Amino acid sequence: RTGPDSALSHFAVYALRGKLAWSGIRWIGRRFLAEGGPWLGYLAATDGVAHFDGCDALLEAFVDICAQVVLARQSYERAHGVVPRVVLCSDHGFAFGDFEVLAEDLVLERLRLAGFRVGPPRGLGFRVAPMGTVGCGAVWCDAAAASDVAELVAELPGVDVAACLIPGGLRVFGVREGMEVSNVRRDAAGWHLQEVTGDPLGLRPGWGEGGDALSDAQVFDRTREHRYPDAPHRLLSGLTDLVHNPAQVLFSMEAGWNVGPVKSRVAAAAMGGLVGTHGALLAEQSLGFVATAGEGEDLTALQRPAVRIGDVFRPFADLVRAGARGGDAV
After folding, report:
1. What's the rounded mean pLDDT across residues 198-209?
2. What is the torsional sign of CA 75, 78, 81, 83?
3. How far, in Å, CA of 31 to CA of 105, rounded?
4. Between 5 and 278, whose confidence is greater?
C-alpha cells in the first residue's frame, strides 16, 4: 500500500522529505482551489524536513507554503469574487541540535528488574510503544501499578518528568536534588497543587502559596510562558481523552535528549542523522503557531496571545473535509 497509513508512506515522509514537501506545497494550492468550500489539508513531509534538514530548511518550506497559500487565495478571488479565509498552523514545535538517546531497551530492562514483564498491560504486564526517536515516551500497564512504573521511569538517564493518573488528577515524578513528587488534581472548583516531596513541574511560583484552586483559564495563562507550557492540562488530556487508547504513564525527556528503539536510531543515521526533535513537555518542543487571514466570527477565538490546539480547529469541526499528502490525514 502507498496510502496515508502505510509503512511505505511513513518512510517516504523522511527518506524523500524534500521532494514530498515541495510536491505537497503545490498540491495544497491545487486542492484549495478545487474544493470550493471549507477544507483541511495536512502536509506531513515538513516533519521529515525538520528532523533531518534542520531549522533553515524548515523555514524555507514554511515561506514556500505561505507563498502558495497567497497565490491560491488570489486565484480563488479571481474565480469567485471573494477572498477565502485561511487558518495555517503547526501541529507541534521542534528543538534542534545534537541529542543523546535513552535506548528503549533500557526502559524495558529497568521495569523487568523491578519485577514487571512485557505483556498485556494487567497485573505486572506492560508495553512500551515504538514511537520513533522523539522527546517523550509512553508505557501501558495496570492502572494499579502506574505510580510505581512512573517513579521507576523517572529515575532513568535523561528523563525529565514522568506522570500517571491518580483519583481526580495526576501524580508527577522528577529527579531534581532527589526524587520530587507532586499531585495535581482537578475538580469543580478548579486545579489544586499538592507538593508531596517537591514540585517537579515548577508550578508553585505561578500558582501562589495559598491553597486556593486555580481555574483552567488561570492555569493556562500562568503557564503559557513556562518551561512546561500548560502542563497540567496536557498531561491529564494525554492520559485520558487525547487518544483512543491512552497510556497509563507518560514521560518527557530533558533538553538535548530523546528516547527510542535501536532500529529507529539506525534508520535515522542512514538518512543523515537526526538534527531536530519534538514530543516533550518542554516549551521549544511543544509550542507551535497559528496564523489567520480573513475575517469572521469563527476566527475571533484565535485573536489571543495563545490558544490550545483544540481551539484552533473547534470552530471548523463541522465544516471541513480533510485531505493529506505524504502522511496521515487529520
Report:
1. 89
2. positive
3. 43
4. 278
